Amino acid sequence: MNNKQKSPYRALSVILILAVVNVILFWTCVYFDAKVIPDPDALGHPVPILTAYFIVLMPVIDIVTTAICVIVTIVRVKKAAKSDKLQ
Description:
This protein has 2 helices and no strands. It is mostly helical.
């Protein structure tokens, strides 16, 4: 049997993926807000609401996801170190 160990640090790759997703989502929100904002001569105050939601919500999601990834990595490293000591 192939008993190859997976890297305990692979959970950290989620942080890089999340950074790429953030860039894509941000520019998508900006694009949609630019298409939705009415004519400048129209009444009312145009608000880029999708971009505002993105700026408010994504840091919370990023912090939670990063914390989970770091905790998972720490647990996996400790588990790998413990299993190495037993062998």
